[in-house]
Automatic annotation (TrEMBL):
Organism: Trebonia kvetii
Gene3D superfamilies given in the database record: Jelly Rolls, Winged helix-like DNA-binding domain superfamily/Winged helix DNA-binding domain
Signal sequence coordinates: none
Protein name, per record: CRP-like cAMP-activated global transcriptional regulator
GO MF assignments: cAMP binding; DNA binding; DNA-binding transcription factor activity
Length: 227
């Protein structure tokens, strides 16, 4: 079994024989940067796991613009609701880097779940984790001021995409300033101001489409989290 895929949340906790049968129905493919994986409104027929790279989920806004809903990276699932609800896609998924994904068709997954009924609990746990994450994001948007939202977003990115470097954690988010602001849920000006203040206090260092977190503990205090 592919080590990267075996280490994702989809496979963690599954019995070895069930994991092998699930791996057998995976279809891995490479998606070039900028390619659309699926569009909002299209019928859903598969779910995906990201093995390498990053994917953004968006919805159209004003003509020629789009709203960034979330940023996904290695190990993340998307499109999984199609297994239980064949409604049209609610968002557009686009590769913002070169991406390797594993695709699981709804028909193959339904056959696998029928043969592995206990695995349904595994999927319920995954969906509950996703719902908890959505709730955390909503709480951050509703009750956090912009500096706190920026700090929490950077911590989340560090945990998911961060690479340790000698002076901290390097987070290469691959987003433009406008996309990063959409992800945080604030104006570009207010997000840039918050980032500049963090940089002035030597909590982070700003690079192109990258933030190096120099002091994670101080950043956690800025986010309102001590742990």
């Amino acid at each position: 079994m592919d080590k990267v895929l075996a280490g994702t949340v989809l496979f963690q906790g599954l019995p070895a024989d069930a994991a092998e049968r699930l791996y057998a129905v995976a279809e891995c493919s490479d998606i070039p940067r900028g390619d659309v994986i699926f569009r909002q409104g299209e019928p859903g027929a598969s779910m995906y796991v990201i093995l390498h790279g990053k994917v953004r989920m968006t919805r159209p806004a004003d003509p020629g613009r789009e709203n960034l809903l979330t940023l996904l990276g290695p190990g993340d699932l998307f499109g999984e609701l199609t297994l239980f609800d064949p409604a049209p896609r609610k968002a557009t998924a686009t590769a913002i880097t070169d991406v390797e994904i594993a695709e699981f068709t709804a028909s193959a997954m339904k056959e696998w779940l029928a043969a592995e009924p206990e695995a349904a609990w595994h999927f319920l746990r995954l969906l509950a984790r996703r719902l908890r994450r959505v709730n955390d994001t909503l709480e951050n948007l509703l009750f956090g001021d912009v500096p706190r939202r920026v700090a929490r977003t950077l911590i989340d990115m560090a945990e998911r995409f961060g690479d340790p470097v000698p002076d901290g954690v390097r987070v290469h988010h691959d987003l433009t300033q406008e996309q990063l602001a959409q992800h945080i849920g604030a104006s570009r000006e207010s997000v840039n101001k918050a980032l500049s203040e963090l940089a002035a206090r030597s909590i982070v260092r700003l690079e192109q489409k990258t933030v190096v977190i120099l002091d994670i503990e101080r950043l956690k205090r800025k986010s309102g989290s001590s742990g």
